[in-house]
Each structure stands twice: as structure tokens, then as C-alpha cells.
Design goal:
two-stranded antiparallel ribbon, alpha/beta
Length: about 200
Amino acid sequence: MTRRKNQDGEMKYEIISNCRKAICGKGYCPGAEMYEEYKMAVEKEGGALLMGVCRGRMSEGIDFYDEQARCVILFSIPYPPRNDRDIALKIEYNNRRAEELSLSGQNTGMSGSEWYDAQAYRALFQATGRCIRHSQDYGSIILIDSRFSKQINRFPRWMQQSFVSPEHDTPPNELPEKLERFYKEMELEFPQRIVLKLSQPATLC
């Protein structure tokens, strides 16, 4: 899916001709109907593009096994809204508590900024794990933000070992070839285990 402005300045959306069916969830808790639509597209059309938000049901509450998902694409680092009242109060509390502990010579624990940072990466790791659910599952994870390559040490060890270009960002024009090679290797190593059927119930948490 591409997004660009037309001559009048309005946002214009176009679906690239060879793109799979796009299914977009609304809000943080899309219902089972959307998941059923996705399952139908997987079975009948060979796949679909399922879009959601971090901290939502599609990025944390559902396990996508095997052919249900072979790629996760994440845009930016999902920091919680800093102007949210509860978030602001939590940051303030942690900063005050860390200062009090520091003055008393104790371990300061997690400051407000450290807690805020941790919430973003917790949501990020929840979303990245949607397509790899067991030891013989596989999938590609595409992170679109230049900050990721500078913070690889923040990622779980299994992900650190899997970065294609740990020292720099992968140029977009190299992605198709790398992904094609990756999927060919994985299909040989892990033959298709299951096929998602419409009769299988949706598991929503």
C-alpha cells in the first residue's frame, strides 16, 4: 500500500497491483470477524496483509502459527502517549522515587524515562513475536526506523543473532533478494506443517 499527496494536498491511498488483500483493524480491540476475514484470505487467496496497532489484540493477543503469518513489519518505536495522564503520573512517580532512593544511598531502580523506554520495547517485542510461535516456525521481521540498528543490544538474544545487517540498515532495494533467499531456505528446512482452515476457531485473548 502506498500513501501520497495529490495536487490538492489531500492524502491519496493506492493499492499496489500485486499486493495481497489488505485488512485493517480499527482501534485496539478488533473483533473475531476481522480475524475470520483474515483466515479466509489466507486459505482462499494464499495470504493477506493484516494491519493493526501495537498494544492491540492483533499485536499481542493472538498467536499466528506457521502459514498464518510469515512476516511482521513494524514502523517506528511504539512509545506510549506521553501526554496521557496515567503515563505522565507514572513517569513523575518513578523519577521522584528514584531520586528519594538515590539520596538514601539505595538502588535507584527504574527512573521515569527508563520505565517509559521499557514500555515501548515491551510492546515492540510482543508484536515481533507474532509470527514465530514454536521451535520449527519461521518468519521475517522488518523494522522500519533508523534507530533500531543503533539499539540492537536492546533486543532479545535470539533476535540479535538474526539481524541481517547488525552494523547498518539494509538498503530497501536489497530486501526482495534477501527475503526470497530466506524463504526458499526456510521452506526446505521446515516443510509446511499445517494449513489454516476456516473450521478452526479463532483464539482471541
